[in-house]
Design goal:
The chain has 350 residues and is mainly α. The protein folds into two domains: 2-237, no CATH class; 247-348, no CATH class. It has helices at residues 2-5, 9-26, 28-31, 33-39, 60-77, 81-103, 106-111, 113-127, 140-143, 146-163, 174-178, 180-188, 202-221, 234-240, 263-267, 274-277, 293-296, 318-327, 341-348; strands at 248-252, 304-308, 311-315. The protein has a three-stranded antiparallel β-sheet with strand order 1-2-3. Helix 5 (60-77) packs antiparallel against helix 6 (81-103) and helix 5 runs parallel beside helix 10.
């Protein structure tokens, strides 16, 4: 039945993304706002708390709020330290780990509403035949550390310093104030409130201006660059820090053809070039979102597998690869340019 409804893993993932986009943006309309708040306040995906119709929201906002309102203030007051700091933060992270254990970083590749929007815009760009820009092996490493700076400075350090009284109150949750998901998902509900700039506070005004600039850049860049914001997203870093704790993972076996065709690296929306030349744990960088495109576009049987514990959920297959290539090239284009058709045909027979 699943094969009939979703002939490719990519289409199945797209269906999941669309459903999760509706749930994470409009979910509270189904279960009610307060019930949605009880369901989760620590989802490992950019599901914005500013969206009043949301079905859940991401772990970054409660983490910042706990550091700001609980951790920092508890240290200053030095009263009821465990109750005010450890317990709230513990339950926030416990909820996060409960979700994360099941799906690991697939929350980024399958659930995150901002990731889905970027991917849909990218598909539109390919159908409009807009040029695709990629990070090559030499410069992709310059972008990768940015997400860790976002985690350390915006999600952890500044909220903690604000709680300690070192930095202004406006820096209590700085990442959420610049997060493009806050604007994108609220716009999807018809609200333009988050686009407004707060003129009474210089810091708040600056953060709002950065947010508007960042969402504009993300939406425009997504036409030419696959998943532009995902590369610097602190949620990806947050998830990457605990990726070994989940049984869901990608497994690549050593194969004598690997490193020659490079098709799996071309299919990767995060430009992880290591997948084409490495095997084992080295093949998957922390930027992997478990989207599964490398599994779909590997032309050899069983070389790349998506597994949950001992269970193989999906694995590369030569016949599946040939069928996939008939509808879409690894980079996402529907039809290859005339000049590149011989090369694509050669890769298909690899």
């Amino acid at each position: 039945m699943l094969k009939t409804l979703f002939p490719t893993l990519g289409r199945f993932r797209l269906a999941v993304q669309i459903v999760m986009l509706l749930v994470t943006v409009y979910g509270s309309n189904l279960v009610g706002y307060y019930m949605a708040e009880k369901i989760s306040n620590a989802l490992p995906a950019l599901s914005c708390a500013y969206d009043q119709q949301n079905g859940a929201y991401c772990v970054l906002i409660p983490t910042q709020h706990q550091l700001h309102h609980r951790v920092g203030e508890a240290i200053v007051k030095a009263q009821q330290f465990t109750l005010q700091m450890v317990v709230p933060l513990f339950f926030t992270l416990l909820t996060f780990f409960a979700f994360f254990f099941v799906l690991s970083k697939a929350f980024c590749g399958w659930v995150c509403p901002l990731g889905t929007l970027q991917e849909l815009i990218g598909k539109l760009g390919r159908r409009l035949n807009l040029p695709l820009r990629r990070f090559d092996n030499g410069n992709v490493g310059k972008v990768r550390p940015v997400k860790w700076l976002m985690v350390v400075i915006l999600v952890l350090l500044l909220p903690l310093l604000t709680g300690l009284g070192v930095t202004p109150h406006s820096l209590g949750n700085p990442y959420c104030d610049i997060c493009p998901s806050r604007i994108a998902t609220t716009l999807l509900t018809g609200s333009t409130e988050q686009l407004a700039l707060r003129s009474g506070d210089g810091i708040a005004f600056a953060l709002g201006a950065i947010a508007n600039t960042l969402i504009g850049f993300t939406l425009v860049a997504a036409f030419a660059l696959r998943q532009p914001f995902c590369r610097i997203c602190p949620m990806l870093g947050f998830n990457a820090a605990f990726q070994r704790l989940s049984p869901l993972r990608l497994v690549k076996k050593e194969h004598d053809k690997c490193g020659k065709c490079g098709i799996c690296a071309k299919a990767c929306p995060m430009d992880i070039h290591e997948i084409a030349r490495e095997h084992g744990a080295k093949a998957y960088h922390e930027d992997c979102t478990l989207c599964g495109r490398c599994v779909e576009f590997c032309p050899d049987d069983g070389v790349i597998q998506m597994k949950w514990g001992p269970l193989t959920l999906f694995q590369s297959n030569r016949e599946y690869y040939k069928q996939r290539m008939k509808g879409e090239m690894p980079e996402g284009t529907l039809k290859p340019p005339a000049a590149s058709r011989p090369a694509a045909s050669g890769a298909e027979n690899a």
